[in-house]
Amino acid sequence: MSDVADRVKKIVVEHLGVEADKVTDNANFIDDLGADSLDTVELVMAFEEEFNVEIPDDAAETIVTVGDAIKFLEKNAA
Amino acid sequence: MRRVVVTGLGMVTPLGCGVEETWARIRDGQSGADRITDFEVDDLACKIACQIPRGDGTNGTFNADQWMEPKEQRKVDPFIVYAMAAATQALDDAGWKPTTYEDQCASGVLIGSGIGGIGGIYEASQTLIERGPRRVSPFFIPGRLINLAGGYVSIEHGLKGPNNAVVTACSTGSHAIGDAARLIALGDAEVMVAGGTESPINRLSIAGFAACRALSTGYNDEPTKASRPYDKDRDGFVMGEGAGVVVLEEYEHAKARGAKIYAEVIGYGLSGDAYHITSPSEDGDGAYRCMAAAIKRAGISASEIDYINAHGTSTPLGDELELKAVERIVGNAAGKLSMSSTKSAIGHLLGAAGAVEAIFSILAMRDGVVPPTINLDNPSVETPIDLVPHKAKNKEINVVLSNSFGFGGTNASLVMRRVS
Asked: Which secondary-structure segment (H or E) carries A7?
């Protein structure tokens, strides 16, 4: 597992209060991990903070699974 | 109008988490005041407060994780967590868990707060200034709004009836119980979860209330002596935190399900001073009128009141004005009346005060015990009324009145009676 994936999963566990083993690449924040629309906004903010990157709203809308977040951040984070 | 009774009690106070835990310490004459250690106080005029004892939940300590999931706690100010704790206790005590759609729609919430999420507003302001708008959390607003205490409680317990909140400064808790009782009396609900909650102990609130010259500043080295209602050396109130919540229920509804009935809410009075934003009217007229309205509504004579839980905040002006208003209203019966201020022990819980004090009044009736006004060494004025200095005393109590007066000149009195 990449360093980015580790960090993403740690944030998801902390913010959504879910077990680490549920946070798989395919896990959908809303359908699988119990997030609501506000949780997903906060998650994106937490990714921005952790990776020191700006995630525009149109990009944020495409991040619906843990894997989407990892892919986006691997590509865009410095 | 339909009769309204109290069937459940819950509280978190500076003397503990739980009704019996707090009440035992109140009766014992303990103080919840201490030096503030959670934040820098060196530059504040007031360096003390009555803070909730935190711990693992044993021995009356407050463990937030028992009442709200950690991931939810993170999103809200503590006043919401306190409300969840007190409401859950009260509903458990009442044994009321509405599961059918009909029962859920007949059960409502009316929980208020004086200043709500002021601590979180302060922190989010710092985030906005230092790091910009993109760092302000989506939970900032919903976690600070006063009615979200009731919102969270309704979601947790499936309460789909009337959902309202009161914001009347230090009268909030009394207004919430009185207004909720009326909703039941008028038939809008069968059960209401009602009370007040407050988490005001932070640098901004202390600075603000100190600027109003409302807080005690002369007892920073002896915190437990600072809250001393009616004493000649009192110099302001001591800030407290916590929540008080009761379950109110229509009398026949409670009887039909065999619920334990603590008391009946027989009177509720409201008035406005129309005088000053922070000072009580100099003739005590507002206090007098709200007590008179509650007594009239109760259909009793003022001489029937056995115990008054006073607003009595330990401010130089307010205590004596309330005392004079009470003397005026009870007249010749003053000599048989007991009146104490439990703020001497737990400080001033602002929007939660009226609810917590209504519960103490109910427990005084239940146990036949008048809670003391601690630190009352030398009363500043003479009165025929027993102010219950230092020690609790045994007394048969059948009718109680609880007073709350708030900034803005907003007053509320509740009258409750034992149900035989």
From this structure: helix A3-16
The helix/strand/coil state of A43 is helix
Average pLDDT score over residue span B284-298: 98
Q: Domain boundaries in chain A?
A: 2-76
pLDDT tens column, A26-59: 999 999 999 999 999 999 999 999 999 999 999 9
Cα A38 from Cα B241, distance rounded (Å): 29
Burial degree of A37 (CB within 10 A; 0-12, 13-18, 19+)? exposed
Q: Which residues of A touch B135 (CB under 8 A)?
A: 45, 49
Q: Report ipTM for this prediction.
A: 0.89
In angstroms, the CA B82 to CA B67 distance is 8
What is d(CA B176, CA B252) in angstroms, rounded to the nearest whole number? 22
Nearest residue of chain B to residue A52 (CA atoms): B135
Judge: domain A2-76, CATH 1.10.1200.10: yes
- How far is B139 from chain A, CA to nearest CA, in Å? 7
Structure tokens at B368: 């036949």
Is B71 within 8 Å of A17 when comparing Cβ atoms? yes
The model scores a pTM over 0.90: yes
